[in-house]
Fold:
Amino acid sequence: MASRGGPMVTGTDGADFQHRQRVSAIYQISAINKSRLKYCIFFHYLLFFAMLAKLCSDILDRLDIFILEIEELQVPDPLWWEYIWCLSILTTFMGLSAAKGNRIRDMQKYIIALVVLGILPLIYGLIYYMSDAIDYITFDMRFPNEPCATSNKSLRQLNGTCYHQLECEQLGGVGIENCANGFGVCCIFQSGCGGKTNREVSYFENPGFPKPITDRMACTMTVDLLPGVQQGLPYGLLWYAFIMVGFQIHGFSIYFAWNLVKAWQSRSAARKVQ
Structure:
C-alpha cells in the first residue's frame, strides 16, 4: 500500500486501497459474529443443563436407580420432544468447529441441524402446551382457583376449590355453590374404592354412602400429583418460558452463523478476483 507522497510498497501502486479496506471489513465482521455465536452457544449449554436436570428423574428410573430426594420432587414424565431437543447440543460442536476453521459448508450444516433438532422440537412444544396457556389466561386470570367451603346449612360443610362451572365439570367435580362473586363455583371432588384423584382436596366415599359399612373389606384409592401444575403455575406456562428463551438463543445463533457464511463467501469471492 502506498502513502501520500511517500515510498511505494513493492507490488502495488496504491490503486487497490478500497479493495483492501473491503477485505479488512470482512475479517472484522467475521471476528464479531464468531464472538457472538460463541456467547449464544454458551447459553445453549446452560439451557441444556436445565433440561437435563428436568429429565434426570426419568433417566434414573430407566437405569433402575432410586434416589429418594429426586423422587419426592414428583417431576412430570417427559415428552419425546424434550429428548430430541437435547440432541441439539451436538450441533454446538459442529458450529464451533466450523467457526474455528472458517468452513462454509460445515456452518451451513450447523444451521440446518439446529433448525431440525432445536427449532422444530420447540415449535412442537409451543403447540402442545398452547391449550394450557389459553386456559390459564381465560380462567385463572379472571379469578384465582382458591380453596372454598360450602355454607348451605342443609348440607354438611365441604371444602373444595373455586373453578369456572365448565372447568369444574371437565375435571370431574361437582359445583355446589357460587364463589368468586358469582364467576365460579365451589367445585367438590369425590372418589371411592378403586378410584383415583389428583385434586388438592378430595373426599373418599365408602360403598353405599351415607350408610356405614359393617363388614371388613379391602379398599384403595390412588392419589396422584395434580397434573399440569408445578409450584402453583400451569405446567405448560413454565414450558412456555423455557421455549421462548430457546427460540431467542437458537434464533440469534442462526443469525450470527448466517452472517459468518456470507462473510466467508465474500472473502472467497474477493480472493478469486485477486
In short: Residues 23-140+235-271 form one domain. The two ends are 15 Å apart (CA to CA). The chain is about 55% helix and 10% strand. The mean pLDDT is 79.
